[in-house]
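Module 6 notes. Inverse folding takes a fixed backbone as the condition and produces residue identities as the prediction. Think of it as a translation problem where the source language is geometry and the target language is the twenty amino acids. Below is one complete input and output pair. Work through it position by position during the lab.
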């Protein structure tokens, strides 16, 4: 690995910024290319074949164009489906983002855990296998949200998003079966931590919201080896690319995710 590696972070939209900001904290010395495939957003609404056919060649083009040392698929909907295809097709190391079911179930005291993802992620065999392997004694409720990723994008762009809209998406996570109540909700879509303050405020009762982004950043730092850790700061270079070619209407709002430096491309 070069002393100052280039890391490509990929998502269907801006949700992957919640993963990027943790990686930037761990490796502020690296160069970053963030790609939002907004031309195909939302991934949660596409069938599996369509998503594989879209993402695998697109990542190949991005690797050829940007020559990253490591690629982070900062999207559960894509990672739970295409990671094995990407690893078979390209030599660069990949780090994925998959539902944090194991740590959530290990931490739950009531043994009632909900997994809040896109409709695509909760349907995946990959997600079902994580539950079979790691739920232990927990009852796991899968909640596929059709609209929360788009609401998070809208809020980040400065639009007002009503409490009722958010509550309708998260309400099925809160299960009280008479014996016990949900005490942990896995944020199984990288868009959802963008709304974390609202989720905490609107929750019918307090729960732990499990965001895997810090663990993903640690994995990236381990794979890269060496380098600078801990200190916050602006990265060597940071680019933001939308596959639609658009510019984000509130790009100032995006600066903190990049350690305060970003060049739109
Ligand atoms: N950010 C993506 C994820 O982690 C999904 C949003 C979408 O539906 O495109 O699953």
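Target side of the pair, the amino acids:
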């Amino acid at each position: 690995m070069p002393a100052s590696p280039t890391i490509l972070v990929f998502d269907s939209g801006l949700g992957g910024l919640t993963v990027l900001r943790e990686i930037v904290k761990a490796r502020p010395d690296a160069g970053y290319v963030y790609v939002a495939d907004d031309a195909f957003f939302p991934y949660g609404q596409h069938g599996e074949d369509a998503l594989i056919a879209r993402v695998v060649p697109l990542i190949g083009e991005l690797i050829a164009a940007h020559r990253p040392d490591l690629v982070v698929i900062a999207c559960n909907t894509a990672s739970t489906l295409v990671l094995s295809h990407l690893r078979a097709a390209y030599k660069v190391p990949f780090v994925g983002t998959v539902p944090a079911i194991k740590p959530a179930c290990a931490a739950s005291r009531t043994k009632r855990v909900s997994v809040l993802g896109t409709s695509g992620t909760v349907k995946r065999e990959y997600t079902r296998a994580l539950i079979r392997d790691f739920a232990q004694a927990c009852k796991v409720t899968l909640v596929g949200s059709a609209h929360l990723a788009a609401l998070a994008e809208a809020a980040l762009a400065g639009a007002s998003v009503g409490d009722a809209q958010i509550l309708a998406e998260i309400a099925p996570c809160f299960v009280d079966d008479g014996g016990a109540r949900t005490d942990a909700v896995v944020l199984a879509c990288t868009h959802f931590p963008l709304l974390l303050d609202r989720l905490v405020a609107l929750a019918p009762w307090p729960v732990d919201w499990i965001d895997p982004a810090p663990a993903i950043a640690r994995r990236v730092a381990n794979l890269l080896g060496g380098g600078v850790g801990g200190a916050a700061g602006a990265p060597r270079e940071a680019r933001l690319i939308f596959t639609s070619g658009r510019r984000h209407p509130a790009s100032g709002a995006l600066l903190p995710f990049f350690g305060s430096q970003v060049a739109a491309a």
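Reference fact for the lab report: The chain has a mean pLDDT of 93.
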